[in-house]
Design brief:
about 325 residues, alpha/beta
């Protein structure tokens, strides 16, 4: 059996002292960014993981972080994966804790987590009220605004500027008639996409057949398209997500309209299936892993008392595929 790498091995590989390796993994200040990176790179190359139990006895630190979410059942896996990977590379273990859906109970749940003494830091992707610390050893709490209490996107992923980018490109291709199939009005991101659609229609001077839909059902989108007049094409449909886009494509095909050609369609979310539609779907990719990673980097900086990283931007980009083309003359 191969010998498990030790902090001595990491120190030799990085060309630093064992104390420096220890300081990097316990979050001590005074280590330069270059040295920290050299140590972390050496640790990754050796597949080194610190002994959390031994570290806890030496430093009174647990080596554990918590990510709290206010509701259960939400698929935050890519965000959590990015956060956990970043924490792991820094020598921490991450636990995900689901808080109650009741605001009052949620505050009590969070206080219990903070007072447990099990965590050095707590990360929340939603704004939550911080409990009053009961000791000087209270964990660092980083409360973000990326989602609301229902886990609807309100931060970076509610930026709807890609709608304008897609509409501008469609207009350049020759489209003059547009339709927006919207998401539910209680989703800030859906409202933002609708609003950018309306302002872009006015700015480009194109024709809008309106805003329809109002939920995330592909069947609703299908019906919206099948209810359009026979002389509607050529048309560009801006759907608020990929499921709505799929419903719109099906509705168009069932009417005998070609996609693209008679109808161009765009979506949002870049679901795995979207690249395999016929035609493949033009959509918006959201880098959820990078959001999770950058959020965890901010928590680690707060724990260590170091300068936080620059806030991530450009987490979304348009992925151009076959569902968009110049309109066919009719």
């Amino acid at each position: 059996m191969a010998k498990r790498p030790t902090s001595h091995d990491v120190a030799r590989r990085a060309g630093v002292s064992q104390t420096t390796v220890s300081f990097v993994f316990t979050g001590r200040s005074g280590i330069s960014a270059a040295t920290r990176e050299r140590v972390l790179t050496a640790a990754a190359e050796l597949n080194y993981r610190p002994n959390l139990a031994a570290r806890s006895m030496r430093t009174q630190r647990t080596g554990r972080l918590a990510v709290v979410i206010p509701v259960a059942g939400l698929n935050l896996f890519p965000v959590l994966e990015g956060a956990a990977a970043t924490a792991r590379d820094a020598g921490y273990v991450v636990e995900v804790i689901s808080l109650s859906s009741s605001p009052e109970e949620r505050a009590d749940d969070l206080a219990s987590v903070a007072e447990s003494g099990e965590y050095e830091g707590i990360l929340s992707f939603t704004p939550i009220r911080a409990p009053q610390p009961t000791s000087t050893d209270a964990p660092v709490l980083l409360s973000l605004s990326e989602f609301d209490e229902n886990m609807h996107a309100t931060g970076a992923f509610s930026d709807a500027r890609p709608v304008a980018e897609m509409m501008e490109r469609l207009a350049e291709l020759g489209h003059r008639r547009f339709l927006h199939i919207a998401g539910p009005p209680d989703y800030p991101a859906a409202v933002a996409r609708r609003d950018v659609y309306l302002t872009t229609v006015d700015r480009l001077g194109v024709d809008s057949l309106g805003v329809v839909g109002g939920d995330w059902s592909g069947l609703t989108a299908n019906h919206c398209v099948r209810d359009l007049p026979d002389d509607t094409p050529p048309l560009a449909i801006i759907a608020a997500n990929d499921v709505l886009a799929a419903g719109a494509i099906r509705g168009a095909v069932l009417r005998g309209w070609t996609v693209p050609g008679d109808v161009s369609v765009t979506g949002w979310d870049d679901l795995t299936m979207s690249a395999h539609f016929i035609p493949s779907l033009t959509t918006v990719f959201q880098d959820r892993q990078r959001l999770g990673s950058s959020s965890m980097q901010r928590l680690l900086a707060a724990i260590r008392g170091t300068e936080p990283p620059v806030q991530e931007d450009a987490l979304q980009k348009v992925v151009w595929r076959e569902s968009v083309a110049p309109p066919r003359a009719r």
